[in-house]
Amino acid sequence: MVRGVMAIRIYFDGVSRMPMADLKMADGVVEHICWVDVKQRKEFEAGINGYTLVYDERPKRKWEEWL
Fold first, then answer.
1. What does the alpha-carbon distance between residue 35 and residue 39 come to, in Å, rounded to a whole number?
2. Cα 20 from Cα 17, distance rounded (Å)
3. How far is CA 66 from the centre of its chain?
4. Which of 2, 23, 27, 38 could make an SS bond with 46 (beta carbons 3.0 to 4.6 A apart)?
5. Are 57 and 10 in contact (CB under 8 A)?
6. Is 42:64 a contact under the CB 8 Å cutoff?
7. pTM attached to this predicted model
8. Per-residue pLDDT for 1 more than 80?
């Protein structure tokens, strides 16, 4: 069964600086995963689509600097 992912919050773990993610599921449950662990992400891929909101809280440069 595919569980819909409503929103994803990506952030650095305060201790290890590992990219982590909180996934808010359509059923109200929040799943906590290591964002760079492909095996953990794979379980939720089918529920992530164009309507999934992504909040990336990791520090980054401005968009214009990437161009």
1. 10
2. 9
3. 21
4. 2
5. yes
6. no
7. 0.88
8. no
C-alpha pair distances (Å), 40 with each of 3, 15, 53, 64, 67? 14, 20, 19, 32, 32
- The pair of three-digit structure tokens given for residue 3, joined into one six-digit string: 């569980």
Identify the band that residue 11 occupies on the pLDDT scale cut at 50, 70 and 90. Answer: very high
How far apart, in whole angstroms, are the C-alpha atoms of residue 20 and residue 24? Answer: 13
pLDDT for the residue numbered 47: 96
How many structural domains compose the chain? 1
The DSSP 8-state label assigned to residue 58 in this structure reads S
Which one-letter DSSP state was computed for residue 2?
P
Which range of residues forms the domain containing residue 19?
5-66
Residue 12 to residues 30, 31, 38, 46, Cα–Cα distance (Å):
17, 16, 17, 24
